[in-house]
Write a structure and sequence with these properties.
92 residues, 4 helices, alpha+beta, single chain, globular, 4-stranded antiparallel sheet
Length: 92
């Protein structure tokens, strides 16, 4: 069970959250998502106020955002120093 699999499964538990991108076995350790009715920059700011670092924007994929009619997405990126506890904090 990979770390990104854990993260995607946990994020899928959040009501209304929509994850963009391929399945865990076809992606790196990033999760781009949107929350209904909340601009991705606001999601990032709220998470930042709780000490959770994410990015919001086009992530060098503006044509894809245009295709899906998205103003932006919020993206969580994970690395070797992250743990499942970090994912749980993000989901909470």
């Amino acid at each position: 069970h990979s770390f990104i699999s854990y993260a995607l499964e946990a994020l899928n538990e959040v009501d209304g959250l929509e994850i963009f991108g391929p399945a865990a076995d076809h992606k790196g350790a990033v999760a781009a998502f949107t929350m209904p009715g909340i601009h991705p920059h606001d999601v990032a700011q709220i998470l930042d106020s709780q000490g959770i670092a994410v990015r919001a924007g086009h992530h060098c994929a503006m044509p894809l955002h245009d295709k899906f009619n998205l103003p932006a997405t919020t993206r969580a990126s994970f690395y070797v120093y992250n743990s499942t506890d970090d994912v749980d904090l993000l989901v909470d």
